[in-house]
Amino acid sequence: MTGFQMPKPVLAIEGLTVSFDGFKAVDDLNLYLDRNEVRVVIGPNGAGKTTVLDLICGKTRATSGSIQFDGRELTKMKEFDIVRAGVGRKFQNPSIYENLSVFENLEMSYPAGRKVFGALFFKRSAEVIARVEEVAAEIGLAGQLHSEAGLLSHGQKQWLEIGMLLMQDPELLMLDEPVAGMSVSERAQTAELLKRISQGRSVLVIEHDMEFVKSIAHKVTVLHQGKVLAEGSMDAVQNNPKVIEVYLGH
Amino acid sequence: MNSTLDKFFGGKQGGIGLLVLAALILVVFPLALDSFRLNMVGKYLTYAFVAVGLVLCWGYGGILSLGQGIFFGLGGYCMAMFLKLEASDPESTKIQSTPGIPDFMDWNQITELPLFWQPFQSFGFTLLAVVAVPAILALVIGMAMFKRRVGDVYFSIVTQAIAAILTILIIGQQGLTGGVNGITDLKTLLGWDIRTDEAKIILYFVNAALLLGCILIGRFILASKLGRLLMAMRDKEERVRFSGYDVASFKIFVFCVAASFSAIGGAMFTLQVGFMSPSFVGIVPSIEMVIFAAVGGRMSLLGAVYGALLVNYGKTVFSESFPELWLYFMGGLFIAVVMYFPNGLAGLWHSHASKWLARLRLPSRRQPPAAAAQPAEQPPASGAGTIDAVPAKQLESTP
Ligand SMILES: Nc1ncnc2c1ncn2[C@@H]1O[C@H](COP(=O)(O)OP(=O)(O)OP(=O)(O)O)[C@@H](O)[C@H]1O
Ligand SMILES: [Mg+2]
User: Fold this and answer.
1) Looking at the domain assignment, is residue B398 inside a domain?
2) Percentage of chain B modeled with pLDDT above 70
């Protein structure tokens, strides 16, 4: 539409507002994400970062505004249709099925047998097994395929959830604080993982850890009180006085 | 091929458990009990259908329905309507002012068979209706509640309300339903007298076979991906939803399956006991049925059967001596089970008896020289082996 967005953005958020009893957690937000871009959203606690992801994946319904994904309007779609359209989302707290094995956790996200009778007669084919093993190797859990997911370390649980998203091969991958609670070496491994898996898809990451942000971000968006405070390269954002005042200065 | 069989029989362990139960109800009871007592066990086993359904929808699906009596009753009433029409032929009702209609209609000045009774002259339709009427009602309730994401507790209360409403409706519409007395004086099924001892024994076996069939269907469901989805939903519903599943549709499905099982139990109750009345529809029987499942173990299809048998046996023995205390005892039992044995008898079995058995068996297992031929202890990830043999750690972690 406008000359500035040369390649059509894969995700175009325009005028997005959500109000909880009059409190605008997201306020007239505009955000464009390009194909194959890794974008990191930062901002102080309560800035509305998680709420933006909630709005994109349909967990929270927008009060007004639009979210276009690949030319489809997400604000009116059902949650499972949004997922099937190619949006995968990791929650802030690791959200895995503790009682199931790592294999079963991954298999659960395999995009087949998603309807009642499909699930009833779903067959664990060689294809499914191969895909699960491939993803498990990617997230470094190939050796734990048959252990119960609840027994994994915190970092491994985070990876497992990322792996569950990879099973769906989403076009847009959204990660809410993927390295929270991880050790330094786990953070580095996660950064490597993210670089690998962002090939051929767009990634939207929320993160507080600046080292991590620096290592993965193509572009950074700073959110404050539901609005975009600044946007640009990591360096530009880091030296922005407004950003230093509300966020980085602390 | 083998894996399909495994799905039904739940692996080696599950297969043994099922064989033991089958031997008990198909061989031991018929040999050990006189026809009166066998009929009584048959009646208890009709409640086991409800309890097995509750294991699926409550134990695995996390949907606590406190209104399964609705479906038990509807199944029972469908069967009773057919039998009543057969018992009300013009010849045997010639003293009525309108011969050929059920006696209670005649007493209520009804002169013509009501429209919704007419299809129940067909046995084929009746068999279909026994399952379809309750399943369709469950579908409607499920769509209304789960699509709107009604909370768990609210759902339980609504099922109670529906059970109460249905009871009031049946009692109020005496001319159409037989009112508080229910539908009684049932005599023959397609000309076959169901009141004889011989008929009761045959019906007992039909009932037992149907129950085992329902358990096999339950196992198939739990061993499928759908079964794992149910467990996943109980644990992290949001994660399932945002992995591309319509969570409501799976809840509706298990709720409908549980309703159909209950209905089959209800129909078999009518056949074996010879009547159906609103006292099996309401709030109290519905809660009793939950207690059967809770005592037996809400994560165990087989446990639910034992729960139904034991609690009902207890009720019969206990309420003969202290009829007015029975309700308090049931309440106490429920609280005790939920607080101290959340997985009921099956949980106790798995945490104590099976360990003890394993210890007994272990030494002999080391004997065979062909160690390589020994089956792996750890079941494959398929989960087929874990249906009735829920691993202890999982049992303990369920709230
Ligand atoms: N469903 C809701 N109802 C009411 N208020 C909400 C709801 N969801 C979020 N909020 C509020 O909106 C604001 C933004 O919350 P959000 O979780 O998006 O922040 P965040 O940027 O992700 O913070 P953090 O870095 O702590 O995760 C907060 O003040 C929060 O209390
Ligand atoms: Mg957040």
Assistant:
1) no
2) 86
Query: Could you tell me the pLDDT band of residue B397, with boundaries at 50, 70 and 90?
Result: very low
CA dihedral B71, B73, B79, B84 (to 10 degrees): -160
Answer yes or no: is the C-beta of A226 below 6 A from any ligand 1 atom.
Answer: no
pLDDT, tens digit (0-9, with 9 covering 90-100), for B332-362 = 888 888 888 888 888 888 777 767 767 766 5
> How are strands ordered across the β-sheet holding A219-224?
A87-90, A172-176, A202-206, A38-42, A219-224, A227-232
Domain that holds residue B367: 2-390
Nearest CA in chain B to A85: B244
- Which alpha helices (H) appear in chain B, and where do they start and end? 2-9, 11-23, 29-32, 35-54, 68-87, 103-107, 123-146, 152-172, 174-177, 197-223, 225-235, 237-241, 247-273, 283-296, 301-321, 326-340, 344-348, 354-365, 392-397
Would you say residue B179 lies in a domain? yes
For residue B74, what pLDDT is reported? 97
The answer to whether the beta carbons of residues B60 and B234 sit under 8 Å apart is yes
Look at residue A190 and give its three-state secondary structure.
Answer: helix
**Spatial distance between the Cα atoms of B343 and B399, rounded to a whole number of angstroms:** 9
How many residues are given for chain B? 399
DSSP single-letter state for residue A101: B
Residues of A in contact with B390 (CB under 8 A): none
Task: Give the HSE-up count for residue B98: Cα atoms under 13 Å, Cβ half-sphere.
Answer: 14
Residue B396 lies in a domain: no
Residue A50 Cα to ligand 2 midpoint, Å, equals 4
Please tell me the predicted confidence (pLDDT) of residue B7: 59
What pLDDT shows up at residue B395? Answer: 39
Would residue B395 count as lying in a domain?
Answer: no
Q: Under an 8 A CB cutoff, do A120 and B224 touch?
A: yes
Instruction: Give pLDDT < 70 ranges for chain A.
Output: 1-7, 250
**Is A41's C-beta closer than 6 angstroms to any atom of ligand 1?**
no
Which candidate in A77, A79, A132 is best for mutational testing of the B interface (most B CBs within 10 A)? A79
User: How many helices (H) does chain A have, and how many strands (E)?
Assistant: 10, 10
Average pLDDT, chain B: 86
Domains and CATH numbers, chain A: 1-86+170-250 (3.40.50.300), 98-169 (no CATH)
CB B247 within 8 A of CB B237: yes
Q: How many CB atoms lie within 10 A of CB A215?
A: 16
CB contact under 8 A, B245 and A80: yes
- Residue B96 banded pLDDT, cuts 50, 70, 90: confident
ipTM: 0.92
Q: Which residues contact B110 (CB under 8 A, 6 or more apart)?
A: B98, B101, B175, B176
Nearest to A116 among B228, B242, B249 (CB): B249
Of A98, A114, A146, the CB nearest to B381: A146
Token pair listed for B111: 């002169």
Task: Check whether B375 has a pLDDT greater than 70.
Answer: no
Q: Which amino acid is at B321?
A: S
Rounded to 10°, the helix B247-273/B197-223 angle is: 170
Q: Which two tokens stand for residue B75?
A: 């199944």
